[in-house]
Amino acid sequence: MSFPRYPGYKDSGIAWITEIPGSWRVEPLLAVASEQDQSNAGMIEDNLLSLSYGRIVKKDIESNDGLLPESFETYQIVEPDDIVFRLTDLQNDKRSLRTAIVRERGIITSAYLAVRPNRIAPQYLHYALRAYDQQKVFYSMGGGLRQSMKYSDIKRFPLVVPPHDEQIAIATMLDRETAKIEALIAEQAQLIALLKEKRQAVISHAVTKGLNPDVPMKDSGVEWLGQVPAHWSVKKMKWVAEMQSGHTPDKKIPAYWENGDIPWVSLNDTSFLKDNDFISETAYSISQLGIENSSARLLPPRVVVFSRDATIGRCAITMRPMAVSQHFIAWVCCNTMIPEYLLLRLRSMTQELDRLTTGATLKTIGMPDVRTIVTPVPPLEEQQAIINFVSSASTKLDTLIAEAERATELLKERRTALISAAVTGKIDVRKAA
Fold first, then answer.
1. 392-417 tens-digit pLDDT
2. Which of 121, 149, 166, 380 could form a disulfide with 87 if both were Cys (CB 3.0 to 4.6 A apart)?
3. In terms of DSSP bridges, do strands 284-286 and 217-219 run parallel, antiparallel, or are they unpaired?
């Protein structure tokens, strides 16, 4: 949908907005919204709310991250149409959306700022502040050493205020158009999830059943594996790949870490392992002295590293000699197992790894359980054929996933641009609304 411009404009005095329609005003926030600070002393309200990336969401007050009930007496009560700001940690977190409109009465931490619109349509103010937020206006206000701001810091920042009927028109149009965009974003998210499921299913079937649908099958003797091709063997993984554990050199001794040239795979690398089959650089490196004075070992290239703590099951193949922390297992493949096939096997074992995982907060798989893991072992030429097949199929699916992700980003950009254009008067939406 395209929109016309207003017939006449004037300078707003706001650098990033430049011109606004001639009938619009620029007023300080305090002229249209007042600070709210209604205490929850005595536990007046127990509907726990939180600001999560531009939305107010409900939380379970019973799952309170260790807070005692009386802790919530220090929270503040908010009402529908209040606007909440999270103006904390400004220098460390420059990605979050920091404003949202409240849809139901509840309590929210007093670390957040709440304001109540009084001379402005609440939904318009919500969209206007979202545009300010997406322009990172609050970060510049919190420059220097400031990590947080209060109402007194922002009460005079200039806000573009259209006539009331235009505020309603803008909010109505944005409600309708952003809902359409969000529906399309949700469709793309569903498509991405289905494509990822398909990719996982392709891997799991190939490494468990092989590529020939007509091959005779046999019971693997392992419940979660089911049937495998009759000519495959089924062995404990430790019999086809030597298990090597890792260690962390003493972090109090700088010589073990400074100017280190040995990549050291740790939990700091698990995000990288999520989307990469091979690893050559790590977040931290250690020195030869660190190797010599710890239980860490220098491992050869083409070792499959596997996280057994925290984010369990993240894995990749090393491209050069490396060491690993105690949170990882390094599988050094024997001559009957190709590392790429072992990598696919580990990535197809999500349910079995979940079964072996212990710990509610700090999840882990114990070494005794790791030693029980079994794998089908096809002949080497079949392993290579499976690797080639999965690579080809995954490339096609990854291309589709990338296209859907790009479409999602374009939709988000469209939503951001539409909100900004509407609340700054760059487009006239009165007839459309």
1. 999 999 999 999 999 999 999 999 99
2. 149
3. unpaired
